[in-house]
Amino acid sequence: MPATTTPRTSCEWISRTRDRLQENVKKQLPSEEILDHPLKPLVVTMSETRIVKLRTVGGSTTSSTRSSTPTPTQSSLAYSMDPLGALEGSDPLSQLANQQKMDPLSAMAAESWVEPVEGKRGKENVTASAGMDDGFQESWASRKAGILCKFTTSEKLSIVTSFLSGGEKVVVKAQSSVVDKVRTRLEQLDDFEEGSVRQMLDLSQQEYMGRIEQLNSELVQAWHQDQRVKALKIAIQCSKLLVDTSVIQFYPSKFVLISDILDIFGKLVYERLRTKSDYCAPGSKVPTPLPENFTPDMVPESAKETCRNWFYKIASIRELVPRLYVEMAILKSYSFLTSGEFSQGLLRLTRMIRGIGDPLVAVYARCYLCRVGLSINSSDRVYLRENFYDFLSIYNQLFSPSVRMDLTFQKVDLSTYLTLYTPALDYILQSVAHDATEKTLADILDRCKQKCNSALLFNTIMAAFKPAYIAARATQFVELLTSCDEEGFPKYLLFRTLGLCLTLADPPTEYCLQILNDVWKIVSKLTDPAQYICCAEVWVQYVAKHLSTREVNTFLGDIIKHMSVGRAYESHYSSLQTVMERVLSHANDFETLLTMDKFLPMLDIFQKESVKVDVCKSIMSHYTKHYQYQTTNDPVITNALMFICRVMHDSVNALTVEDEKRQIGNLICNFVKRVDFGRDFEQQLSFYVEARASFTNLDVIHAQLVQSVNRLAVDTRCIVKGHHTRKTASFVHACAAYCYITIPSISSVLMKLELYLLSGQVALLNQCLGQADACLKAALSLIADVPKIIEIDGKQKSSEPYIVSYICNFLSTLLIVPDSPEQGVLYLTRGLLNVIQNYSWDPQSAGRATVYLYVLDMLSTAAQESYPYHIDMVDSNDVLYGSDPKFIAELNRMCSVVVEEILSHLQYLGKNELFSKQSSLALDLLIRIATKADLSKPDLATLALNLWNLSQKHGCLDVKLAVRTTEYLKKKFSGCNQEYYAEFISRLKIKSQVK
Fold first, then answer.
1. Digit-coded pLDDT (tens) for 718-749
2. Is 955 a member of any domain?
3. Is 7 exposed, middle or buried (0-12, 13-18, 19+ CB in 10 A)?
4. Does 41 score more than 90 pLDDT?
5. Do 206 and 71 form a contact (C-beta atoms < 8 A)?
6. Segment Disordered: which positions (predicted)?
7. Cα separation, 866 vs 875, whole angstroms
8. DSSP states of 455-486
């Protein structure tokens, strides 16, 4: 594009423009396309109107001036319209001007200021980076937060602006001619270019970010108030902030903040042009909004003229950096003019960035250009590679004396300075590498070796290209990294990045060990523990994934060696945890891992108890997950896991929260269940004895051990098929004794009750009658200790329903427990009745009466000649007593006592007017007496009839239930020929008043 000179001062330029306007305002000339600078004398004919004049409080704005640059447009752009026409608000006299005869340019100018109808599109919804390719948009959005967190400063910052101290005042001034209108617009620019600006000093980082956000709000607010000049000024001033590198370590974060504002500005311009671009589809006369995939031929000429004016004005910005950034921000708007402008414009801007002297400012300008270029979905990617190659050509400037002097002045070391380039370089190279071939990688590597052979660039290349490409050339990269120039960029970071790539993609199998050896020759020489472990935590995953357990063991030994020097491990527990986690995650054979001679020493590195416990929990979690259905009896593995579990267990104390106890307890229980010595039951029991001694603080482990020993006893019985030998009998007695001794160490009363009953049942199953009696007696003694309120599923509830259910289960066991000759008839049942009588029941609940009803059921079953179920090899009372009259008499006596207790409770319910509960209990007792007692005895028949009448006395018995009850009894007695049954049934009358 041809170069153009401009007047020396803005005053001369204004004077010349005014003269030309006065000379040509008398005649109208048609528009034509030219290839010239937009700020040369213009031919404009416009109608009378008025204009909005903007001035800042306290004076106009100013900036330093430079020579103007060539126009950013191509031959397709027409320069026949006022370059400032797109920068003002709606002309209030547009309608009047439209009614008058005007030239086509004036008509288009008038149309260009008509705002879209409110509600037709609504106000612009401004979002940064809109329209960007999805992958890169997400990539940049995810990067921004990391950049803002990483690149911070405690230094004081400054900002130069004229829009943060109350904004600008809007003064409406009527203009009498087109010349006045243009003059006013030029004065507005003078306000910015020649006035005074405000410099805010000594701002903290948070204050600076707040001011930037305030500028963002000012820009959007000015735009929606039709103050286009002010919005452009803010965008320019924000862009100028990117020239300042006085606090260099904050520059990447500053770039993120400013580029967001520029994205918003570009979005505003683009959406504004779309609202002005309604068109008529072929065959229709109704204007419709442009579709998303519109073409330039759909855009009306008025919108194109407005678009050209934006680019004209931006081309008049005199400083290079603001001019570049603002044009890049609205680059997408070229789509309104031509579809072939993007490639040329991107290359032109790429070459213009070469004029930026500061390499840090230049690289971020290139980053923004690449991001904008991707946002317009340009298929041409030549400019991306061109930007990267341009950076290669100036790479040596990063180490120039002037840069070093500036770094010395700001007290920033070279390595820190180089890290400032990584966000921009990473993005540029990732843009180049996106969907690139391996040939592109090869070309870039060759170019880097020729230009600079830089560690920084190699690190960026590995981070940008697909890991598969890097892995395929792993040996080549090892050679490059070994011989590259590492000035300012530590070499260990290169090998860390290479390790990350090789964990994501597999290198050639035959080179896996060679790659590790070549890399570790360098890494193992690192004397700084932080640098060493930084590499080791990455490469350990490579070793565990691609090499054998032998190499993993050697690698762990090297880590132990390096991290033990000066107790360096104390400062790197987090990285060491990562090492262990990655070894566990990629272990193909967990048992082999545990047998490595460096695994437990690696665990001993964690001297801090909390960290060591976390590592142990991680080990046990992986073991449980990967070996859920496998068992082990290897003594080395068992001892290793026992040691790990003991570490977790010993960390439990009075301050340990319940969730932590539950987690540790579950992991240890899973370990206990995994140990299986097969038919060697004695060895299995010895393990359980050792585990009981090792884990004394957690109830859940003791409960698991009791369960495991009971299962061991049952397995023994299954093997001998119930016929114990002297040896097996001694063993099952030992198992029963183990359970009886272990259960008291549990603190939970409910858990002890369950385990005593279970252990008693297992002992009875194995013919250990003495141990069964002991367990059942211990269970009876604990019932009184059950708390009144227990927690069930996280809710506080009464324990009576549990007690009732437990006693019912207990009674079913008592039925088949043979009486001891030394204890008397039904001694355990009598003990249970004493417990029930002494237990503090809720008097208004049905718990006590329900238990007594279950006792009646058990006693009536115990009177039968043959019980409904038995245990093999165990003679129950039906065999021992054989329906002996004395035994039956004792049963009758106990039943009488139980019935008296129930009748007493019925009387209590009646006194307290609990008639519904009284009716239900009376009916239950009636059914048991009618079906299980001898109704030939007049007193029992009379009792049954009284209970029937009592159940109906207060009308609480449902009629349907009463009818079903009588029908049930009739069916029950239908096979009996005794007359007293028929007489009893006939006397069961259903009262009519029953509800």
1. 999 888 999 999 999 999 999 999 999 999 99
2. yes
3. middle
4. no
5. no
6. 55-91
7. 11
8. HHHHHHHHHHS-HHHHHHTHHHHHHHHHHSB-
Q: Is the pLDDT of residue 715 over 70?
A: yes
Do residues 460 and 420 lie in contact, with contact meaning Cβ atoms separated by under 8 Å?
A: no
Query: In one letter, which amino acid is 465?
Result: F
Q: Which residue(s) pair with 287 in the sheet?
A: 280
> Rounded distance, CA 742 to CA 696, Å?
10
Residue 522's Cβ-count burial label (10 Å; 0-12, 13-18, 19+) is middle
> How many independent structural domains does the chain possess?
1
Residue 443: half-sphere exposure toward Cβ, Cα within 13 Å = 12
- The arithmetic mean of pLDDT across residues 340-367, rounded, is 89
Q: What Å distances lie between residue 283 and 275, 279, 286, 294, CA to CA?
A: 22, 12, 9, 17
Cα Rg, the chain, nearest whole Å? 46
Q: Tell me whether residue 879 is in a domain.
A: no
SS (HEC) of 684-748: HHHHHHHHHHHCCCCHHHHHHHHHHHHHHHHHHHHHHCCCCCHHHHHHHHHHHHHHHHHHHHCCC
Distance CA 457, CA 476 (A): 15
**Tokens of residue 955, six digits:** 């009308």
Domain span at residue 940?
Answer: 913-994
Q: What are phi and psi of 699, to 5 degrees?
A: -65, -40
* DSSP H helix total and E strand total for the chain: 44, 8
Distance CA 99, CA 49 (A): 13
Residues 555-585 have pLDDT tens digits of: 999 999 999 999 999 999 999 999 999 999 8
- Give first-to-last CA distance, the chain, whole Å: 105
SS3 564: coil
CA angle 981, 987, 992 (to 5 degrees): 145
The tokens of 406 are what? 């500036």
Residue reference for tokens 């004081």: 156
pLDDT surpasses 70 at 28: no
Confidence grade of residue 138 (pLDDT, cut at 50, 70, 90): low
Which residue in 147, 371, 355, 353 sits closest to 266, CA to CA?
371
Position 978 in a domain: yes
Instruction: Enumerate the H helices of 721-818 as residue ranges.
Output: 726-742, 749-765, 769-783, 800-814
Give 743-779 pLDDT, tens digit per residue.
999 999 999 999 999 999 999 999 999 999 999 999 9
Q: How far is CA 772 from CA 20, 661, 702, 732, 823, in A?
A: 118, 32, 19, 12, 14
Q: Does residue 745 fall inside a structural domain?
A: no
The confidence score (pLDDT) of residue 164 equals 63
Q: CB neighbours (10 Å) of residue 790? A: 18
Alpha carbon separation from 880 to 815, 858, 862, 885 (Å, rounded)? 13, 17, 12, 13
